[in-house]
Design a protein that fits this description.
31% of the residues lie in helices and 17% in strands. It is of the alpha+beta class. It has one domain. It has a three-stranded antiparallel β-sheet, with no helix packed on it. A hairpin with a 4-residue loop joins strand 2 and strand 3. The longest helix is centred in the middle third of the chain and has 16 residues.
Length: 52
């Protein structure tokens, strides 16, 4: 069984750097899981928006 998930996270300008750090850590830890096939984080910097 495959699970596909898309999440869009918008941050306030003041917290973008902190959120980026948290999300990158989450991606790194998720990729370590045996069942993880793909886990990507994309950032639209002009909009303070992250998509994964």
């Amino acid at each position: 069984m495959s699970i596909y998930l898309t999440a869009i996270v918008k941050s306030k300008t003041a917290t973008t750097a902190e959120l980026r750090t948290i999300l990158l850590d989450m991606v790194a830890n998720s990729r370590k899981e045996e069942a993880c096939i793909q886990y990507d984080l994309h950032e639209a910097a002009a909009e303070n928006t992250f998509i994964f």
